[in-house]
Amino acid sequence: MRNSLSKFGQAIKLPGLSFALAFTLTGFIIAFSDSKVLSKIGSPLEFIKSAGATAGNAYLALFQGSIFDINLTKGHNFFQGFYPLSETIVIATPLILTGLSVALAFKSGLFNIGAQGQFIFGAIGASYVGFHFQLPIVIHVIAAALAGMALASIWGGAVGLLKAKTGAHEVILTIMMNYIAGYFILWILKTSQFLRPGRIDPIAPEVNQSARLPLLAGANLRIHAGIFIALVAALFVWWLLTKTTIGYKFRAVGANGQAAKTAGISVPFVLTATMAICGALAGLGGAVQVLGSEHALNADIAGSFGFDAITVALLGRAQPLGTVFAALLFGALHAGGRTMQSNTGVPLDIVLVTQALIVLFIAAPTFVRFIFKLKKMSSSAGLTSKGWNG
Amino acid sequence: MSLELRGITKTFGSFTANDEINLRVETGQIHAILGENGAGKSTLMNIVYGLLKADSGEIFVDEKVIDISDPSDALRAGIGMVHQHFMLIPVFTVAENIVLGHEKTGKFGALDIETARSAIREVSKDFGFEVDPDAIVETLPVGIQQKVEIIRALIYEAKVLILDEPTAVLTPQETDELLKTMRELKAKGTSIIFITHKLREVREVADQITIIRRGKVVGAVSPQTSEGELASLMVGRTVDLAPEKHKHKIGEPILVAKDLTVRNALGAAVVKKVNFHVNAGEVLAVAGVQGNGQSELARALINLEDHVEGSILLGGNEIRGKSIYDSLHAGIAFIPESRELDGLVGSFSIAENLILDLHDQTPYAKGITLSAGVVLAEAEKKVKEFDIRLQSVSDAVSTLSGGNKQKVVIARELSRPVKVLVASQPTRGLDVGSIEFVHERVLAERDAGRGVILFSTELDEVMALADRIAVMYRGEILDIVDSNVTREELGLLMAGVASKKASV
């Protein structure tokens, strides 16, 4: 038990410290970009006080926007104060799924940049089944989600198959396929099959009530059952990787493809299967987004869920549990960022800076070790170092 | 110039790599340092060359204490080193490589290559080297590349030259030439520290031999000492240098290759229409200088190569064109040339590596789930059977020594029903003790009635184990000879001179 605890401590040390470092640095940026603070640069004491207050207020707003806000309980019940937390989870839910997609690919030695496109196809599939068919409750949600996953799985699996058959690099393939998916959704939303009657802007009909994921905390909070789907998916990925022969093959090919091949493991199978499962995961993310929170397919349905997924998977060290936590953190940053902007005037972009800094520090572990005078850690560093050689 | 080390100690954590080492190299002496892998030879030399800093101890050059904290200090003190893996830039010319790090510029900052060119010609003339200063390094044979390294050391006026396992990459002929060069250097007053684990070379060329075991000097002996004595000093127990080969009945052909051609990705034939067979209960050695198609031929036997023509019959069944998985499970055990690259998944545990080929079969798998308990229990059994030295089967295989890594590969490959064992350079980079183990295991497979195809560039190994020897040269099997052939005849065949006699 103690062993596994210390292992856990080792695993979160680097992300944790990178996180702390990024926040400290962002605090400075917030303070220094504020004209009120800068005007006090003449007297050091005032300057420090004012800088501290500005950064502190910004972070307080970030907290209020992502976890709990006492002001929201006025006139409502106490529960409503957790509206921000609900928002955090709503944003984190699809991110967990796309993050898992990227993380699983990492384990097979693949760099899946294509979660964005896979997400889009998942959303398209789920949306179509959701609004086009009349099915009984429960069955409708499942059918819609499965349709999205199947479509995305084909979209993702094609990348694996192409790589296996032609040797094309998955990074190039997935980037290009993201473009295709991005324009495909614009086109399909203009077809008579998808365009909502009476509308000219690209938006599909809302999915039927029977195809919607149930809300978890009443009509005032947006949190829906998708979070459970995401958590089950994380559990599934963990089980697949550590307990099954398929996961064993994935990890063997990811860690040393040449040795795996020499021992008779079929590399083409692993490439195709990995990408098909990754596609299904990201596609489930798209499905959950449509069935849980958006209810209607629109051109911007994917937001940046597919791209943030790369950061999330890196931050989570490509581990399922780590990915869940990283996605929650990103959800909190996004949700809190909005409040920070409206309450304190600190632009939402500062959240992107924080995100970028976290990734930067994780990608440069030597730097973080240097700052905190840490010894070299044995954990699986060098996660990204092989991305391009595939 | 004389070099003396007194009380050199170096520890890494709790591990003592060098323990109070004393050593004296006289002017114009060839001083061999003999020891197994991991004995601390390289650590010691890295200290002398300034790549590592000793915890305690002193280095004397011509009886004066000197302080060496980086390689430039060593160079200034007259110490040069030729590393096992050459420190050359393949796409640069010889002259460009030699000025690297010491570039002098002429007018308008142009690189002065001419000085280096003439210096190279001068040194080459002195020692009878044929090295063209303008040749691109990657086009040169390995033996010449090594000479470039030696020339570099000499041009920067090395009086003590450290050669780290210099013969590991050379053909027998190139090795002989290197030994000749070493004698010439010695005659001109250069001292040489010769690091190796090859006993024959040491006895041939060294004036003094120091043997290191587990970081300590365990013997300082003369080159008259017998190979057996040297080996037991190195390993710390008596070793069987020539494994006993029992006479026994050789069976029917078990693997037959007909007109086998292997092409590389560019379509060039690297193995050209070779024909051979191996009988049950027989070791067929495939000898040859590295790079003559042996690696590709070995890989082709389990269908690891993509472009293969011809036929491979295993027990009468055609296996060419089958999947790697089917080839292995048809009864071929395969020990790849590089255990780190092709044999093992470094970050996987020892237990996981032992089932790389069998992970989806009973008893290791039930349906699609792995039976972790069975995997561990079977691993424990294999560890005992093959005497793999480790702390836990759950540790990453990369934590093992080379010999134990190879044991993991062998244990895994022999855990399937095997008809033929294909072993590609199975003792490369191993210490004497592990080599002994591999040799015993190879002969045990032969005695158990399996066919063994042993690909090896080590002549001693080929002669000790083989029943018949096929010699490859430029992708062809030049001849298949009986194992009572002489070293000289084999050497000639390896150099591409076909012999008329001794053919079988």
CATH structural fold name of the largest domain in chain B: Rossmann fold
Number of helices of chain B: 17
Largest interface: A-B, 20 and 29 residues
Q: Report the end-to-end length of chain B measured between terminal Cα atoms.
A: 53 Å
Describe this entry's structure for a reader.
The complex is a heterodimer of chains A (390) and B (504). With 390 residues, chain A is an all-alpha fold. Chain A is 69% helix and 2% strand. Chain A contains 14 helices and two strands. A two-stranded antiparallel sheet of chain A has the order 1-2. In chain A, helix 1 crosses helix 13, helix 4 packs across helix 11 and helix 6 crosses helix 7. The radius of gyration of chain A is 22 Å and the shape is globular. The C terminus of chain A is likely disordered. Chain B is of the alpha/beta class and 504 residues long. Chain B folds into two domains: 233 residues, P-loop containing nucleotide triphosphate hydrolases (Rossmann fold), CATH 3.40.50; 158 residues, P-loop containing nucleotide triphosphate hydrolases (Rossmann fold). Helix content of chain B is 32%, strand content 26%. In chain B, strand 9 and strand 10 form a beta hairpin. The radius of gyration of chain B is 25 Å and the shape is globular. Chain B starts with a strand and ends in a 10-residue tail after the last helix. The relative contact order of chain B is 0.10.
